[in-house]
Automatic annotation (TrEMBL):
Family: Belongs to the RER1 family.
InterPro entries the record matches: Rer1
Compartmental location: Membrane
Protein species of origin: Podospora australis
UniProt-listed PANTHER family: PROTEIN RER1 (PTHR10743)
Cellular compartments per GO CC: endoplasmic reticulum; Golgi membrane
Keywords in alphabetical order: Membrane, Transmembrane, Transmembrane helix
One Pfam family recorded for the sequence: Rer1
Identification of the protein by name: Protein RER1
Length: 190
């Protein structure tokens, strides 16, 4: 007899294949991790292709609106700190110590900015959502008739209001979610 591993049921075969595909997908994601620019270029091209599809087909505005809301939600999570200083400020009012707050004075300890949603998870979720939206735009069941200018205006108002609130939060708690390269110092500075 051969000692071949054969699943005993059809469900075992399906499980084995899905596990194999899952491992291959994870290996592909792991290989793409260091290529930040190329990943975002792929996502941008996918988004443009989706919008061209919606524009040419003149439909699927609800799918595009849902994608826009989802991407806005992801972007806000990307901008926010993992440990919200407003919640910690409330906690610190109840406690005696100032544990977990962002430094506000020069003599306080520096703590780096840690995002609530890391860049890779942001990219992965956004790309997956764009591909799913593109896929949905080929099925008539998702083509709900709506007056699209209302959706566009509502999304713009939502974007402006949420970004205004987020920027006010960033100013109030003095954090910047972006770093532009490594700090460089002059030879003459002490």
């Amino acid at each position: 007899m051969d000692a071949v591993d054969e699943p005993t049921s059809p469900f075992g075969t399906v499980t084995a294949q899905t596990n194999k595909l899952g491992r291959q997908y994870q290996a592909l994601l792991d290989q793409s991790t260091p290529h930040v620019v190329y990943r975002w270029i792929f996502t941008g091209v996918s988004l443009v292709l989706f919008f061209v599809r919606v524009f040419v087909a003149e439909g699927w505005y609800i799918v595009a609106y849902a994608l826009g809301i989802y991407l806005l939600n992801l972007f806000l999570a990307f901008l926010q700190p993992k440990f919200d200083p407003s919640n910690e400020a409330l906690d610190n009012d109840m406690e005696d110590g100032a544990i977990g707050s962002l430094p506000t004075k020069q003599d306080e300890e520096f703590r780096p900015f840690i995002r609530r949603l890391p860049e890779f998870k942001f990219w992965h979720s956004a790309t997956r959502a764009i591909i799913i939206s593109f896929f949905c735009s080929w099925f008539e069941v998702f083509n709900v008739p709506v007056f699209w200018p209302v959706l566009v205006m509502y999304w713009i108002m939502l974007f402006v209001l949420t970004m205004r609130k987020q920027i006010q939060h960033m100013i109030k708690y003095r954090y910047v979610p972006f770093t532009i390269g490594k700090a460089r110092y002059n030879k003459n500075s002490n």
